[in-house]
Amino acid sequence: LLFLGLLVRKIVKSIRTMVFFMKEVEAGRLYHTREEFGVTSHDEIGDMADALAEMVRVQREMISELKEKSVHLSALSEETAASTEEVTTTTNEVAESNSKLAEQTRNGRLNAVESSKVMLEMSSLIQIAQTLASSADKNSGGMSEAVLEGRETVFRTIERIEGVKGAVEETENVLSQLDAYSQRIGVVGDTITGIADQTNLLALNAAIEAARAGEAGRGFAVVAEEVRKLAEQSQQGAREVSELVGKILDGTNLAVASMRKSREGVEEGVSVAHVAGSALERIKEAIDKSIADIRRIIDTTNEEVARSDKVIKLIDTTASVMENTDDYVQNLAASMEETAAAMENVATSANEVSESSEELRRMTDRFQVEKDGGGTTSALVPKRGA
Is 116 helix (H, G, I), strand (E, B) or coil? Predict the structure, then answer.
């Protein structure tokens, strides 16, 4: 009976010890080890102690890992939220720059259209000058024949020379206007070049921001590259326009000088015709000189007409490029709106993840996987007879 009583007391003590450690586990204190149980038997109670210790170990490792993961997840969600805010700010800045670029592109297209109108007017004026010069050529030829007819035709010749004089003066005025229009076109070409330079700079900034945006900005980077190519084409077109305008100005100056010489010759012819009929031969020589000058003017105006046609084509090409640029800018704006919407979704998801990680941290905080001090837990085990 004594042996049986001792055995029962040992079993009861072991059971109480197991109950105590189960309550410890229930309270969230998972730092106990198998050695602390005090059960050394190899019977069913020992097996139960082994199972309990293994369960505590698995839960302790699981809770420790969950705590680490929750801290990492919380930090990651905060970093994601900060990055999302930075990307959103950058996206807004790029959108604002894109809006300015769109306005400048529209202004550039309007300037190109206006330049085309000016060039059409200039081409029309050159054709008028060509027509006047051709008419003067025919009239001069008629006057040359009239001189050979005698003094009877002197007065009619004088009238015709006066007509040539008026035509020359009108042509000189037209060429002066052409010079002014060409200078205005040069200013417009500089404006287009400035717009293209600024477009290229904005495209470069947009590409940089797209690279910072990562995968979300891939489509935006493609659009920014197309915008940069169009800006380079605009620069090339503007340079060609500037060169052609310079050539037009040179030709105009030559034409003006020729017209002045023609006017002087005609005035001389008029003076000679009024002095005496005996000077008819000299008048014929002056008329022949005028005819030569007028024919040079005709050749010059023919060249100017061809050049003005080329300038008009270049301006039309520039307008088309600016229109395509406007389309790309609009597509870029749409991409920026999509990026902003995606960033809002990412920010929302980051907030949700942060809240979940915080909830997970609160749940795992109720478990204690390490001892607070350096003491043992054996003092907490129920004593015999307790």
Answer: helix
Domains in the chain, CATH or no CATH each: 111-354 (1.10.287)
Contact criterion met (CB below 8 Å) for 172 and 294 = no
pLDDT for 269-323, tens place per residue?
667 666 656 666 776 677 777 777 777 777 777 776 677 677 667 667 766 766 6
Q: Token match 């990651």: residue?
A: 76
* Residues of the chain by 3-state class (helix, strand, coil), percent to 5: 90, 0, 10
38 Rama class: left (phi>0) / alpha (psi -120 to 50) / beta: left
- Tokens 């020359």 correspond to 168
The residue assigned the tokens 């996206």 is 91
pLDDT score recorded for residue 308: 67
C-alpha distance from residue 136 to each of 38, 115, 133, 220 (Å)? 130, 31, 5, 62
> Per this entry, what is the length of the chain?
386
CA dist 351 and 77 (Å) reads 7
pLDDT in tens, 48-101: 778 877 887 887 788 778 777 777 777 776 777 677 777 677 767 766 766 776
Global confidence as pTM = 0.32
Residue 366 has what DSSP assignment? T
Following DSSP, what letter does each residue of 264-276 receive, concatenated?
HHHHHHHHHHHH-
Q: Cα–Cα distance between 213 and 84 in angstroms, integer?
A: 10
- Tell me the one-letter amino acid at 334: A
16: which residues sit within 8 A by CB, 6+ positions away? 382, 386
Q: Tell me the residue ranges of DSSP E strands in 86-215.
A: none
